[in-house]
Write the structure tokens for this entry.
Amino acid sequence: MYMSIITLPIGKGRNQLCSLVPKIKAGAQVVLTSHGEPQVVISAYRPAKKRWRVEVPDDPARYGDLQSPVMEDWK
């Protein structure tokens, strides 16, 4: 999908927020500016994907010890 970038002053962005939400959900990014300088980027929420873990490495001789770092608790 083509990602468009919409640049607006903060005041216009505040006034047009309701009309911008569908465009943002469709993939656009909104850059809010103050005195012509970018200040904030608004983009759609994308939930984080589940972390991927390897149970058993397919070839330990090739990749080294993959098991120990992977099985540590992730914080």
The chain has four helices and three strands. The CA atoms of residues 55 and 68 lie 10 Å apart.
